[in-house]
Amino acid sequence: MKVKKLRTHYIIRLDSGEEIVKTLTEFAQAKKIKSAFLLGLGAAKELTLGFYDLEKKAYIRRFFPTELEITNLVGNIAWLEEAKQSVHQAKRDEPILHIHIVLSSSNFNTIGGHLFSGTVTATCEILIMVLDAKLKRSRDSATGLNLLTI
C-alpha cells in the first residue's frame, strides 16, 4: 500500500495481493480515522459481494473468483455505538467499512453489491475523505442492519 496524506484526505494505492476491506479497516484503525467517506477504482479478484434480503434480514452472498474491473467503489467508515452483534462482523473498537462496488467483466457486463472482500490484482486507487465528526452505527430492529445514527 502506498499512501499520500493531504490536509483532510488520504490518497491510497493498494497493491496486487492486498485484501481491500481488511487493508482499509487496518488503515482506518492505525490512523485513528473518526469517520470518512471513500471512493475508488481499480481491479480485483476473489470478490465476495452481498445483497441484503430485507425480509430475511440477512445477506445473500456470492463469490466471484475471476479478475474484474472496479468501475466504482463507494462507502463510508463509522463505528459501532453498542457492542451488539453486527452484520459487518466488527467489534465495538473497530471501524466499520460499509462499501458498495460496481464491477465490469471482460465482456462488459456489470455486477454490484455490498463488498465483503476482494483481492487487488493490478491496483486499487482509493480517496478517503476524513470527517471531523465520529459517525456511529446502531442496530435497527426493523431492518436488522447497523444504520448510521444521525
TrEMBL record:
The entry's keywords: DNA-binding
Presence of the UniProt keyword DNA-binding in the record: yes
Q: Which SUPFAM superfamilies match?
A: AF0104/ALDC/Ptd012-like
| Key word Cell membrane present | no
Q: Name one GO molecular function term.
A: DNA binding
* Pfam families, sorted: PCC
Residues in domain PPC? 3-150
PANTHER family, alphabetically?
A: DNA-BINDING PROTEIN, PROTEIN, PUTATIVE-RELATED
Q: What is this protein called?
A: DNA-binding protein
Tell me the lineage of the source organism.
Bacteria, Bacteria division WOR-3
